Amino acid sequence: MPCDRADAVAPLRGVEHLVLDDLAAYADDRGWVDPAGCAVADAGPLDQAPSARAGWQRVRAAATGRLVHGVVVPSFAHVAYGAGDWDGERA
Description:
Blueprint: H1 16-29, H2 54-64, H3 83-90
């Protein structure tokens, strides 16, 4: 089954679930499906390059393979910190 969402970037290791829990509630309120294993969180600073984040690479691979229908994040900075990086990842 395709994933309907994937999430990324928590500020510190060990608190990834806090980001994922909030985003899971947001998705659930809208009736979106999040199969087990489809939620992804990276730990680290938001200004870390997307290419350096293992979790984001999982999201990118799923999106490239058309397994993801959408990505839910707290803000665009959770995908990429800089506008140029954001545009590249969005494409």
